[in-house]
């Protein structure tokens, strides 16, 4: 069995060719797709967060809305850029959204990806301390956020409060018990995966990672996942961690599928630079008839290692088509691989 969810970047464009022409469209269609995915038997609805972009940028209102409209499906992010976050305010928002969803949030956080603007986090009022990088700042914010989710009191109460206080130091409210076990770190390197394991966060590995060996993405990711699990075991955590990988996978079951994705496309990994002096490996797109797709996916070592697969969806093609993309994998591919 494998958890299967979708991952939407929430792109929108005013272009006549786009089925998602405004921020309103992107948000409302995201909710509709999550509802449809739940009805189809998928396990997760995940959203990417990008600032200063025509994409989804404020996750917690969306997560809360999806939580209110659904009852079973996991609701998550992949990922929230921690360079932009106030950990205390985020802990309150996350707690509230998780309570609305009945404890179904799965929050992916990370340093984030290259931005639309130069050092965009500075506009939000944040800057690394002297001698630190923006990545250091992101990890420090993540550690504080993760610590706050323990729900321990730390703030000295006012001796003459407006409303009565419980005894002792005060914590942030609302607190959602169990949310801390549902925080994931999006790791682009083996080292940050090991760091996340030591802290006790779950692991998300995307459709790209920084190239560390020159091998195909799925091989590097599988090694990353194994290193993560070894570090988790060495840290002595009691629970079993979760691991997800993201993939672009399209089952060609009708003429529309073949028109959109049946021309070969990016059928192999490729290497390039998303940041200066940091070579990355980008994963291939899987697009084939279901029987062929099943055999191709059997060879993906990282998918085999992970318990959760996130399907990246072309959200601008509309809710109905994206629901079809998810349904085709759940019905025509997953059973052949033993995932259902």
From TrEMBL:
Where is the signal peptide, in residue numbers?
none
What the entry lists under Gene3D superfamilies is as follows: Luciferase-like domain
Domain Luciferase-like: residue ranges: 9-255
> Which GO MF terms are attached to this record?
oxidoreductase activity
Q: Name one Pfam family in it.
A: Bac_luciferase
Q: What is its EC number?
A: 1.-.-.-
Q: Key word Oxidoreductase present in the record? A: yes
Q: Which UniProt keywords apply?
A: Oxidoreductase
PANTHER family, per database record: BLL6902 PROTEIN (PTHR30137:SF15), LUCIFERASE-LIKE MONOOXYGENASE (PTHR30137)
Q: What is this protein called?
A: LLM class flavin-dependent oxidoreductase
Q: Which organism is it from?
A: Neoaquamicrobium sediminum
